[in-house]
Amino acid sequence: MSNGVYTSKEIGWSILIPNGWKIITKAQSDKFTQKGKAAAKDVYGVEIDDSEVNDLISFQKNIFNAFMSNSEHYKETYEG
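Above: the chain sequence. Below: its structure as tokens.
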């Protein structure tokens, strides 16, 4: 990260972290993800497979406002 800008060279994507927002640690991001997966299982009865998801960066302004970004390789399932 440089000058408040996060860049993922792998996918060619950059984002400016807004003033007043703090970067979330990997442990905090994982905690949010696990809560979301548990909620999906409770409400919809489905397990979420995030084994191929690559977390990029996450940041938070307050308890109600957070931004989490990730990527996943696209696997084309049909020709064309």
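DSSP finds one helix and five strands in the chain.
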